[in-house]
Design brief:
Beta Polymerase, domain 2, five-stranded mixed β-sheet, 5 helices
């Protein structure tokens, strides 16, 4: 009886020692914490890391013309304004947007006193640019007598019927851009008399 009790005691000790050894080699696995809120979806770590490493979207850089290119663009813009003045355009404004806009270096804005004059000014600008070897890349609003936009690439010219120009007020969109100094004749002012007729001092 003494040997049997000793044998049982020895087996029990061996089982206890084996269990303790296994516990040291294989620690208990812990379950990953679950989202506390219902309906919350947790993304895999690899997907989150990949999303964080993605570069931010790159916006188009403003147009940057070199010195020679800017000089040529300025000459083209001044020629366009001069052609508009030959067709009796009023209130010419030339805005320098070089380095500020991605589509042009200069924006010209002029007005006509009537719908027929708006079309005549636009045709005169295109004809003057054709003599310089410049063809418009696009022309919008032709023959409507209200607003004609002529795109020469580095120069964009807006020809407005003057009351409509005051409504859209494109100049205020570039209020911080510098204006090119122009020599504007007295008759090119919006409040100038036409043919000495005082009844036509103001625009309709």
């Amino acid at each position: 009886m003494t040997k049997k009790k000793a044998f049982k005691g020895t087996a029990k000790n061996r089982l206890t020692a084996k269990t303790a050894a296994n516990a040291k080699r294989k620690p208990a696995r812990r379950e990953a914490p679950r989202a506390k809120l219902r309906g919350k979806v947790t993304e895999p770590r690899a997907k989150v890391a990949r999303r964080r490493s993605e570069p931010a979207p790159v916006l188009p850089a403003p147009r940057r013309a070199d010195v020679r290119g800017r000089h040529d663009s300025l000459a083209t813009a001044k020629a366009a304004i001069a052609a508009a003045l030959e067709k009796k355009a009023v209130e010419p404004v030339l805005i320098d947007v070089c380095g500020r806009a991605s589509y042009a270096d200069f924006i010209g804005v002029v007005s006509g006193r009537s719908d027929r004059q708006v079309d005549a000014i636009a045709d005169g600008v295109c004809a003057a640019m054709a003599e310089r070897g410049r063809r418009p890349l696009g022309r919008e609003g032709a023959r409507n007598g209200r607003w004609v936009l002529i795109d020469f690439g580095d120069v964009v010219v807006h020809v407005f019927y003057h009351p409509l120009r005051e409504v859209f007020d494109i100049e205020s969109l570039w209020i911080d851009a510098p204006r090119v100094k122009l020599q504007i004749p007295a008759e090119a002012r919006a409040d100038a008399r036409i043919d000495g007729d005082p009844s036509r001092d103001s625009l309709p």
